[in-house]
């Protein structure tokens, strides 16, 4: 396939816009984009109708005038006779370079942005306005205003979540589901903590079928929230309001207005994520400490990418840990830049492990708690699985924001079609939902190949499978890889039962020899 084609056009008076444009070109080519960089007046403007993707970088001179090397383009693009669908095939972005001490701050960029939209162009994002008066050149996306007194509405309650349905729950409006049980289902000596967690979704409007997934919004650990606030000198109980700096930008829907610092850090900022190169670039701009700034610049440079990988990516060092490694920089971060610096927490998806036909108003998941060691002293922990494992409904009410969506697994609707399921370890979760659903519908041609390490340590739902076998609703084939000297996996069982698998795939009646083989443990 041809690589995506990008055009960067600049109007520059002193060379700054050209320098920015050439840097954009280098970044684009580094990402395998085919990219051209040209001054606006050196580009045949009539060809613009054939360009799929364009970035315009424009300075403003004098009292709102375009730079000399884009005046011809400027005259052409504002011709009255141009059809309003001229640029309907073009996606674009506009970056303005201006000075807010002038009355017509970034006038050229703002006017060009409006005109390109008038001509049918699709804006990839609102016009971006650089300010030479700003200490960083580019202002933050939001202004964060601390409140002197905490209002009654400023609390740690999840914003946008609900316990009563108006429409199906979604990321914009999750359902606060009550956690009913949180039970470890692996043996005490097993290396991995695996949990069977059940939620009450009564009144949620959530509907799901076998193969669907549930998405959960996790929270940062309280100890990490405290550590982050200490590093940045923030009071977790202080409240603030957010104000977008540009009119076309809206505040994040998941943040209440007003909001507490604790809520922002615990439920929105992904301080446990592994930061990207752009994190180090912005951090270097914010740093007042020479030694730390030099190191951050080195890590964010093209020449420093191997060192950045060794420092951050390979050991999975988190944003919080990086901030603790650069204490002078962390302490100087303006709160306005928190949402530019740290990404928001993303929802995690889990296969639903139960059927509404077997467990009405309930939703179950099987969660392997992620924990592993790198060369760093502290073990690496999965944000969502560790948070879920820490919740104990026996100690008091626990609510978790969630919603469901269609998954990638579908099962046949015809009642006589046999289904072969291969689910090693926690991968068996969606097949448990499928078996429950199919049995409730009277479909008994269910064949499950399940594998784990040891029968007495991680054989999930053993009693349930055996009861279904006795009822003639399930054929179970197991492989316990560590219960004998020679390791046995599900692929070995599939090979042993090749004739059975072929008969089922070929939609023929199962021969008696295969039936006997399937009964073997």
Brief characterization of the structure:
By secondary structure, this protein is α/β, with parallel strands linked by helices. It has 18 helices and 20 strands.
Description:
FAD binds at residues 316, 348-351, 382-385. The chain is α/β, with parallel strands linked by helices. It has four domains: 5-131, Flavodoxin domain (Rossmann fold, 3-Layer(aba) Sandwich), CATH 3.40.50.360; 175-216 and 347-405, Elongation Factor Tu (Ef-tu), domain 3, CATH 2.40.30; 222-341, NADPH-cytochrome p450 Reductase, Chain A, domain 3 (Up-down Bundle), CATH 1.20.990.10; 419-507, Nucleotide-binding domain of ferredoxin-NADP reductase (FNR) module (Rossmann fold), CATH 3.40.50.80. The chain has 18 helices and 20 strands. Strand 18, helix 13 and strand 19 form a beta-alpha-beta unit. Helix 4 (222-232) crosses helix 5 and helix 6 (277-286) runs antiparallel to helix 7. The longest helix is centred in the first third of the chain and has 15 residues, at 16-30. The radius of gyration is 29 Å and the shape is globular.
